[in-house]
Amino acid sequence: GVAMAAAMLASSAYAADMTVGFSQIGSESGWRAAETSVTKSEAKKRGVDLKFADAQQKQENQIKAIRTFIAQGVDAILVAPVVATGWDAVLKEAKEAEIPVVLLDRQIDAPDSLYLTAVTSDQVHEGKVAGDWLVKTVGSKACNVVELQGTTGSSPAINRKKGFEQALAGHDNVKIVKSQTGDFTRTKGKEVMESFIKSSNGGKDICALYAHNDDMAVGAIQAIKEAGLKPGTDILVVSIDAVPDIFQAMAKGEANATVELTPNMAGPAFDALEKYKKDKAAPAKWIQTESKLYTQADDPMKVYEEKKGLGY
Ligand code: AHR
């Protein structure tokens, strides 16, 4: 009677009917905050019961959270791995417990049999797109580049550096002269840029900044302005993520280009998990998201407005 109808309704309305643990890195950037909010709303939309754990940038906290999720017997685990190495043991535990794990936005150095799939961009390609843009923009001019790297040991920091260097190869006029981590944060991006400027003739010897994310670029833009130089003109600025704030900077002429990273990693992850649960169809090991280049020519304020509604 009523109970059965209610049960049927529940099972059809909440086809997903899953409990999913999500081990998030923290909230180092605007992009990260958007990924968290998109994941929560995607879960809600699908009737997924999401257990959220913020690791405050520490791998040990992520490992603890994953162990807790296993003990709770969740149906699946999402993890955005802060660094690339050191995951084998805990992923083996999840595998033994038959809990599928989906990696979000960062890759790891471990056999792919230890996770169901990874939803990420091609981070080498992102770096290459940024580098190609710079090489094309400076032409034959000599250009000293300073680089703000992401979190040391994280796959985006490793791969975005690699891809950018690939783009510069064979263009000897464009050189990375300084490179240091800014931990993907605005504060650190500003601080490190200040030191780059100090040791580069007040910034006059710097032609371009490549930042592994927009937040560090935004911090660095502030440092450039405080040094009395014009970001976007005196020092070109190219970065990755496409967060709303970088479009505001582009609209003002203070940033030049960014490579888009969607904060919606959870949508494809839940799709894959739902399908896997329903017909045991294992997805491909890599679900690749797009990497689109935006420049000042792309109506930055319009993109800013569009982005604002998408978890930012
Ligand atoms: O792993 C994705 C990167 O992590 C984003 O580009 C950066 O903003 C974030 O902190």
UniProtKB/TrEMBL annotation:
Q: Which superkingdom heads the taxonomic lineage of this protein's source? A: Bacteria
Q: Does the keyword Flavoprotein apply?
A: no
Q: Which Pfam families match?
A: Peripla_BP_4
What is the similarity comment for this entry?
A: Belongs to the bacterial solute-binding protein 2 family.
Species of provenance = Aureimonas endophytica
Q: Which residues cross the membrane?
A: none
What the entry lists under NCBIfam families is as follows:
YtfQ_transport
Family matches, as InterPro entries:
Peripla_BP_I, SBP_2_dom, YtfQ_transport
Q: What protein does this entry describe?
A: Ribose ABC transporter substrate-binding protein
The record's GO molecular-function terms, alphabetically, read: carbohydrate binding
As given in the record, the signal peptide range reads: 1-15
Periplasmic binding protein domain location: 21-264
Keywords of the record: Signal
**GO CC annotation:** cell envelope
Q: Where in the cell is it found?
A: Cell envelope
Major location category of this protein: other
